[in-house]
């Protein structure tokens, strides 16, 4: 990339060590103006100090946006309508935030006339792919600067030395800092690095920030009632809440009851395995409850088709293809399936577990007690019909058996 073609760059800026060094490095390497963008997506930390730090470094155009409602309404909720889980466990808390940040970066590019965007994702991780696939989908000719793929600052020590040399203030937080590489938003908080690089090492208890340990959780269960409208939670215990407030409340009550801890080894898109720990209390509750209301309101084949497609949908999000035509196509189908997903789910939270203890839908339930009952169904279901159903389904098995065809296990 020719430095002469870059006059102005929109930088995804947190105000931490990496992006503060990147800001100065951009000016030094590309001799360009920098526009900073800081997203508040519920990470639980004050974002305004980033403004003061950017100003102190001479930045004139500074964007700090509260995107919490948009994040949950337009990204988290659509994902949970699909019951999305990557590799059977991961609720995609980091993955789902990246397309929103990419979208807002491109909006800022269009508003300010930037030639390029810049991010602080490393060349080993998934986030570089997610940011850049999103940016290219939304603005195909955008230039992307990824310093970790260009510079020779390959460690925290070299970053600190660079910051000291250029008088870059790097300490914005008071109190004990975490040794882990962390990412947080309203859906989750993730931890990587240090002892977690050994898959055999148990995480230290004081690492966790959002959840109490199940052993320390209250001895009495907590009951919740969630109200659904077309697949989305709209109220908790009868109180109408916005999407972001729903997730914030579920995070609070889930964390207080030890819900939502996860320790996994996952397959990154770039090819390596990575061990990470996650806290997703609200998302864990949402997944359990959504499947419960769907069990009552979705047709069997629709539900099974959604389950068949979900791993593909999850991989699209994990790998950064939120803005792809295939994800958008799948989303239309998923959203169409949610029209009748209305009603209430009652949950019990207890020492790290989430149990469904009730579900109902006054208008859209497909559960018919008269048919399902083990008592006298008064002719609602003719049990003799099952004989023909079974024989028809057994026909191919009986033919093979009569002809002596053997289906044996290989081991």
TrEMBL record:
One of its GO terms (molecular function) is ATP binding. GO terms for biological process: argininosuccinate metabolic process; L-arginine biosynthetic process; urea cycle. Residues 8-169 form the Arginosuccinate synthase-like N-terminal domain. ATP binds at residues 12-20, 39, 120. It catalyses: L-citrulline + L-aspartate + ATP = 2-(N(omega)-L-arginino)succinate + AMP + diphosphate + H(+). Pathway: Amino-acid biosynthesis; L-arginine biosynthesis; L-arginine from L-ornithine and carbamoyl phosphate: step 2/3. GO terms for cellular component: cytoplasm. It is an enzyme of class 6 (ligase). Keywords: Amino-acid biosynthesis, Arginine biosynthesis, ATP-binding, Cytoplasm, Ligase, Nucleotide-binding. Its EC number is 6.3.4.5. Homotetramer. Belongs to the argininosuccinate synthase family. Type 1 subfamily. This is Argininosuccinate synthase. The gene is argG.
């Amino acid at each position: 990339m020719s430095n002469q073609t870059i006059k102005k760059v929109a930088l995804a800026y947190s105000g931490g060590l990496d992006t503060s060094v990147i800001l100065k490095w951009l000016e030094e390497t590309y001799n360009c103006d920098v526009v900073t963008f800081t997203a508040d997506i519920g990470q639980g930390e004050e974002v305004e100090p980033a403004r003061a730090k950017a100003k102190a470094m001479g930045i004139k155009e500074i964007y700090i946006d509260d995107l919490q409602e948009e994040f949950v309404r337009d990204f988290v909720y659509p994902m949970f309508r699909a019951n999305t889980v990557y590799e059977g466990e991961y609720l995609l808390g980091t993955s789902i935030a990246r397309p929103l940040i990419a979208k807002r970066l491109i909006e800022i590019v269009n508003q300010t006339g930037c030639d390029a965007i810049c991010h602080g994702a490393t060349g080993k991780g998934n986030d570089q792919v997610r940011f850049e696939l999103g940016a290219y989908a939304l603005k195909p000719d955008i230039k992307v600067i990824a310093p970790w793929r260009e510079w020779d600052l390959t460690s925290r020590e070299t970053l600190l030395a660079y910051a000291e040399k250029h008088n870059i203030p790097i300490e914005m937080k008071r109190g004990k800092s975490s040794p882990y590489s962390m990412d947080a938003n309203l859906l989750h908080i993730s931890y990587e690095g240090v002892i977690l690089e050994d898959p055999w090492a148990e995480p230290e208890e004081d690492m966790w920030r959002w959840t109490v340990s199940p052993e320390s959780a209250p001895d009495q269960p907590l009951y919740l009632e969630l109200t659904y409208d077309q697949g989305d939670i709209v109220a908790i215990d009868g109180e109408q809440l916005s999407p972001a407030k729903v997730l914030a409340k579920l995070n609070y009550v889930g964390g207080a009851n030890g819900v939502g801890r996860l320790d996994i080894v996952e397959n990154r898109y770039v090819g390596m395995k990575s061990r990470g720990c996650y806290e997703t209390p609200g998302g864990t509750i949402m997944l359990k409850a959504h499947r419960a209301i769907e069990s009552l309101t979705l047709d069997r084949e629709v539900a099974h088709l959604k389950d068949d497609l979900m791993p593909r949908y999850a991989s699209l999000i994990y790998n950064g293809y939120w803005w792809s035509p295939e994800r958008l196509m799948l989303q239309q189908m998923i959203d169409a399936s949610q029209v009748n997903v209305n009603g209430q789910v009652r949950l019990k939270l207890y020492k790290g577990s989430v149990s469904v203890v009730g579900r109902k839908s006054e208008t859209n339930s497909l559960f018919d007690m008269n048919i399902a009952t083990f008592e006298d169904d008064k002719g609602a279901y003719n049990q003799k019909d099952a004989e023909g159903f079974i024989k028809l389904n057994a026909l191919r098995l009986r033919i093979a058996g009569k002809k002596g065809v053997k289906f044996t296990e290989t081991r």
